[in-house]
Design goal:
- The protein is α/β, with parallel strands linked by helices.
- It has 2 domains: about 15-30 and about 100-230, Rossmann fold, CATH 3.40.50; about 30-95.
- It is built from 9 helices and 6 strands.
- The chain has helices spanning about 30-40, 50-55, 60-70, 75-95, 105-110, 125-135, 160-165, 180-190, 215-220; strands spanning about 15-20, 115-120, 145, 175-180, 195, 210-215.
- A 6-stranded parallel β-sheet has the order 3-2-1-4-5-6, sandwiched between helices.
- Helix 6 links the parallel strand 2 and strand 3.
- Helix 1 (about 30-40) packs across helix 4.
- The longest helix has 18 residues, at about 75-95.
- The chain is globular, with a radius of gyration of 17 Å.
- The chain starts with 15 loop residues before the first strand and ends in a 10-residue tail after the last helix.
Length: about 230
């Protein structure tokens, strides 16, 4: 099911799309949650259950780890945990991941319309590059912005601001494509509107501030000509 809204025309034509990756283009949210759960178990953090961690996926580790452990993310214990998690994710979960059905087709439609594609994700730079290569999406995206390019991760707007600079775009030139309330909040704080996908695991109530909601990349690709991407 697709939720379309009536969107007023903009004074400027759409020039780009800011792209979240995890849960939006790649079916990886559960994998990230499990990697964190494995990490918390390894370090004896009983509060780090899947049920606790999964709703936090989409914000960066600089927020998730302190929320679960109470540790400053710059502390030595937190840095050890973060490093362990990255190794665990890369060795155990990354090789199993795939792009969502329709992700390649959707990116191709954006490219056909001449839209500049800029990744805006809370993932670390190395992890982002590995994710895109694993899913076969790396060659379809123009520019990449990660948490390595920002002081604070989503839902703070730093990554969105960095992506706009990287793409040489303005807030009213673009739309954000994401799957979590953190994407929507971060984009809104930077003056960018968001189109949301349900495939990341969030319901419409939590995605209500998006201007349009689709089931997944395949649904958006099917309805592309009727979507906000063709109406601005």
């Amino acid at each position: 099911m697709t939720s379309l809204t009536t969107t007023p025309p903009r004074a400027t034509r759409l020039r780009g799309v800011l792209l979240d990756v995890d849960g939006t283009l790649i079916d990886s949210n559960d994998a990230h949650a499990n990697a964190w759960v494995d990490t918390f178990r390894e370090f004896g953090i009983d509060a780090g259950t899947f049920e606790r961690v999964r709703p936090m996926i989409g914000m960066g580790g600089d927020k998730l780890l302190p929320a679960v452990t109470g540790l400053d993310h710059e502390s030595k214990p937190a840095k050890r945990m973060t490093a362990w998690r990255m190794q665990r994710f890369a060795s155990t979960y990354l090789p199993t991941l795939r792009a969502f059905p329709g992700a390649h087709e959707l990116l191709a439609r954006f490219a056909e319309d001449g839209l500049r594609l800029v990744v805006a994700t809370s993932a670390k730079r190395d992890e982002l590059n590995d994710l895109l290569e694993q899913a076969g999406l790396a060659e379809l995206i123009d520019r990449k912005t990660s948490s390595s390019d920002a002081d604070h991760s989503k839902p703070d707007p730093d990554i969105i601001d960095a992506a706009l600079r990287r793409g040489e775009l303005r807030a009213d030139d673009v739309l954000m494509l994401g799957d979590t309330p953190y994407d929507i909040e971060a984009a809104a704080s930077a003056g960018v509107r968001t189109v949301a996908l349900r495939c990341g695991g969030w319901d419409d109530r939590r995605l209500a501030d998006a201007i349009e909601i689709h089931d997944d990349a395949a649904a958006l690709a099917r309805n592309y000509d009727q979507s906000v991407f063709r109406r601005v």
